[in-house]
Amino acid sequence: MFENVKVILADDDPLNLDMLETMLQQFECTLIKAGNGQEVIDAISAHPQVDLVVMDLNMPVLHGYDVLRRIKQDVHWHDIPVVVVTADSKEVANVLELGANDFLGKPFNLCETRHRVMNQIRNKRLADFAKDTNAVLEVEVAKRTAALQQALAKAIQTEYEISLRLGRAAEFRDQETGSHLKCISQLSKRLGQLAGIPGDQCDILYFASLLHDVGKIGIPDSILLKPGKLAPEEFATMKEHTVIGGKIMSGARDYPVIEAGRVIALQHHEKWDGTGYPYGLKGDEIHIFARVVSIVDVFDALLTERVYKRAFSIEESMGIMMDETGKAFDPQLLELFFKHVEEFHALQQTIHADTLPITSITEMIR
């Protein structure tokens, strides 16, 4: 702790400097002498890692008060301990108020001087050690934080990728709606933004909406791909895709996208008036994500040709959906959707025009 110690001794009386030097010889430190206040400032500038300044208060060129102010107000020097030497006990309170760490009275007491100097050097070295340790710790914490952030980003990206692959798997079962997922995903996010859903939640909605029909994986082809109207018992089976989707994604509460996908899969066929399925939820009991997806899902389905129906015009589609205001759909959300319907229609048309039909599992996973 007392290796390579540097101490500045300042006094305009050479005899006092010699006395201080003799007293401090036992520390085997480097002593730097200064004969006035300006030389103290110059010495600190030349040796910024100095461990202690022991200085007389009454010095020429630059008074001890001014030197003390300069040291304690400098951002790089203020931690350097300063011991002021004075024969006037009335000055003690003043120098301590200015930031002096300790004081020595004249005439010098050998034992007292050594102990006071040793205590200040020890405190300085401990403070330096703590500062260096904190700097090292800050670097390590920054490294660990960066690594954790990268791992978290990778985990989130992996969750997004899993959602996309699951959605594509369900989409492949229903080849005639190859661009449906893109529409649901992009239109849901946009409607969520307009509805004031926070940005990070809109990102979750963007990927989670891909999973709305993942339960169709469990529906027989004879029902899922039937070109005509479903018989009542067939429709009952088709409705099970909501519950199947919920089961597929159950137990994933630590994964926001998968958990949101589970909720959407379960609730996107619930209706505002409580007549939907599978649980007959109504109003705000239905999660906002599911209410958003139900609107854009029906909108895209109406505008798109399917094996069991023709494509309706935008006017026909809006009329059909308007009739369901307050019944199937959240009235405020639907009103917001219609307010921006031209934007949604243009986006929907662009997506379908730019998306090639999927004809094989190989194309799906490219």
UniProtKB/TrEMBL annotation:
Q: Which UniProt keywords apply?
A: Phosphoprotein
4-aspartylphosphate PTM positions read 56
**A single GO BP annotation from the record?**
phosphorelay signal transduction system
Family matches, as PROSITE patterns: HD_GYP (PS51832), RESPONSE_REGULATORY (PS50110)
Q: Which InterPro entries match?
A: CheY-like_superfamily, Cyclic_di-GMP/3'3'-cGAMP_PDE, HD/PDEase_dom, HD_GYP_dom, Sig_transdc_resp-reg_receiver
The keyword Manganese appears for this protein: no
UniProt key word Phosphoprotein: yes
The record's annotation in SUPFAM superfamilies points to: CheY-like, HD-domain/PDEase-like
HD-GYP domain mapped to chain residues? 155-353
What the entry lists under Pfam families is as follows: HD_5 (PF13487), Response_reg (PF00072)
Domain Response regulatory: residue ranges: 6-121
Instruction: Report the protein name in the record.
Output: Response regulator
Q: In the record, what lineage is assigned to the organism producing the protein?
A: Bacteria, Pseudomonadati, Thermodesulfobacteriota, Desulfuromonadia, Geobacterales
